[in-house]
Hints:
By secondary structure, the protein is an alpha+beta fold. The chain has ten helices and 20 strands. The strands form four sheets. Strands 6-7-8-3-9-10 form a six-stranded mixed beta sheet, with helices on both faces. Helix 3 (91-101) crosses helix 4, helix 4 crosses helix 5 (135-147) and helix 5 (135-147) packs parallel to helix 6 (165-182). The chain is elongated.
Amino acid sequence: MRILLDNFTKKFGTLTVIDQMDLEIHSGEMIALLGGSGCGKSTTLFSICGIHKINGGRILFGDKDVTNITSQERNVGVVFQSFALYPHMTVEQNIGFPLKLRKESASEVKRKVDEIAEMVHIEALIHRRPGELSGGQQQRVALARALVRRPDVLLLDEPLANLDATLRLEMRSEIRRIQQETGITAVLVTHDQVEAMSMCDRIAIMDAGKIVQISEPREMYNNPVSDFVAGFLGSPPIAFLQGRITDGIFVEPSTGTKMPVNADIAKRANGGEVRVGIRPEFFQPGAGAAIKGRVSFIESQGRETLYNVTLPDGNILRSIQGSQSSARIGDEVEWGVDSSQMLVFGRDGMRL
Ligand SMILES: Nc1ncnc2c1ncn2[C@@H]1O[C@H](COP(=O)(O)OP(=O)(O)OP(=O)(O)O)[C@@H](O)[C@H]1O
Ligand SMILES: [Mg+2]
């Protein structure tokens, strides 16, 4: 089921939280709404769900305008951060509850509950109560309850936030598997970029109630439209150098390193101040123009090691290297970046 947000506005009192947003979510797609706290992710989700009445624009499911119909009539499945299971009911009763409300027959409820319990791998747990389940198991029950009515749309608001790191990893791929198996259109609200990148077909990055970029994860990582987007994706994050481009050359001010940029960028920068973004995988020994700095922090991440290199002005570049690297804290290093890997942004933060 396609979802279309057409010029959608949401206010709380005089506060405009979402201002004329346009967003099309394709049928069968899983999309992430990614952004910092308070940018309006949940507000958008609740508006799609029908919990919030909107103040302007339209919401369409397929070709049907659902703007003024209730949440129940929209046929959506919702999973929140707090699993909100009924503690006194068994897993079976929890999952079957939405069907019971719809007055489906006991045999029909049982058949559907068994089917969905098998899909989310909790068949063996259906006679337990939520208190007797782990966090990941509870989340599976919440997912099953959201899916049992065969909703047209699945809405997920930070569904993994309450799980520990291992479970989060497991449930990431589980939710994606179930979404793909059912072919359901899904919206995932998250502030975790790894979650958005690993689970979704496309990501919409939000800032202050607006979508600033919407792309496939790889494309967004490689071609961010602004320094804000570049900073949001990637872990460890991208580092920035501030300086000026003159005659096609970016000069790093604290070391005087001259780094050529391509002609197009040079033309657009036109002698002005820029921010150059360098991702840790591209700041490497032997690459491009060497920038002199001192290793100030080392973190072994198992297969790879993360280095912080502090420049004379205190600015920090990050480098991710394989196990062959032997730099130590305090070492002076001269690592560089190929100019083709530099992301250059103008004063307004937009990509040049
Ligand atoms: N019911 C409400 N009444 C008044 N203001 C609200 C209400 N719900 C949200 N807001 C405000 O709207 C803005 C967006 O809130 P929203 O919950 O959508 O953010 P979010 O992106 O989901 O953030 P988080 O990552 O912290 O969950 C915030 O400034 C918030 O204070
Ligand atoms: Mg929220």
